[in-house]
Structures are given as structure tokens and as C-alpha cells.
């Protein structure tokens, strides 16, 4: 993504439950990590499936260059869901299996409809999600030794936290019952 080989981000969606701060923030972290800048957040629904202090919000996000990303809240009392799909001009990336698998499908000419392009021939790989904490510590150690900068900075984390707080504040404007 960073090399630009996938082209510009053109849209996507992600599903999560168990609170915006608890789990939704991680999908917002992925947007940041992929270089996708959120310019405006419009919450449109909420579920109290985890904590009254941390509702699961569904949010329409306006991103740079006019792209949209929909963060869809799923009631965690029914099922645990954590997945996302990001569409770029030249590829589709999917985070599936609660983050344990990643699918990448390049854009190809449709074999059926002349002149149409689709995302096909997806390659699915296992991620190191099960070892996430191990990798965070290793990344931090390399950053502290000056080997390289951290993959995620404190500024990145603070920006995601501000976005989560902005979503909550925006939702509370029209839903005063959720005010703390």
C-alpha cells in the first residue's frame, strides 16, 4: 500500500462489536496504518453490547479524496466479528477471520463482461495476529534502539482516540441519553 502499487483508496467497510474504543478503534488504526486519512465521521447508529461507557457505533467516515469507509457495529452478544474490506484502484484487501487471515485480490479484466474490471484471484494468507503483542514489543525495542521509527506512533494513537471521542460527541448531540 505504501509503495502506491494498489493505487488510491476508493472505499471500504469494516464490522466490529464490543465498543468503539475497545475494538472499533483497531479498525480505525488500520485506516491510519494504510495511509487513509479520515476527514469527517458521521455516526448513525449505536449498540450497547459491551459497556455503557463504550457503545458500539456505526459510523460513515469521509476520507481523503472523497472515499468513504463505513464502520458497521455488530452486536457482540450475537457474534464476535472483526473484519474489514478496503478497495483500492488496483486491489481489494480483506481482513477476515477476526484478523487471523488477510486476503489480497488484484484488479483484473472480467472474463465474462467485456470492458469491466473486477477483483479476482484472491490470495489468502495467515497473519501474525495471534502474536500481535510479541510484534508490538519487538517494534518498540527496535524504535528505542534507534533501528527505525515505530510502526505506530503516539501521535497515531492519539489521533485515533480523538476520532473515537469525536464520534461519541457527535452521536451524543442527537442522542442525549448516552451523555456521561
Give the integer mean of the pLDDT values: 91
Number of H/I helices:
3
Uncertain residue ranges: none
Give a short account of the largest sheet. Answer: 9 strands, mixed
Can you give a write-up of this model?
With 180 residues, the protein is of the alpha+beta class. 27% of the residues lie in helices and 37% in strands. The chain is built from 3 helices and 9 strands, in the order E-H-E-E-E-E-E-E-E-E-H-H. It has helices at residues 20-33, 132-144, 154-174, and strands at 9-16, 38-51, 54-63, 68-73, 83-88, 91-96, 101-109, 117-119, 123-126. Strands 1, 2, 3, 4, 5, 6, 7, 8 and 9 form a 9-stranded mixed beta sheet that branches. A hairpin with a 7-residue loop joins strand 7 (101-109) and strand 8 (117-119). The mean pLDDT is 91.
Q: What's a quick, concise take on this entry?
A:
The protein has 3 helices and 9 strands. The protein is an alpha+beta fold. It starts with 8 loop residues before the first strand and ends in a 6-residue tail after the last helix.
List keywords for this structure.
3 helices, 9 strands, alpha+beta, about 35% strand, single chain
Layout of helices and strands:
Layout: E1 9-16, H1 20-33, E2 38-51, E3 54-63, E4 68-73, E5 83-88, E6 91-96, E7 101-109, E8 117-119, E9 123-126, H2 132-144, H3 154-174
Parallel strand pairs: 1-4
Antiparallel strand pairs: 1-5, 2-3, 3-4, 5-6, 6-7, 7-8, 7-9
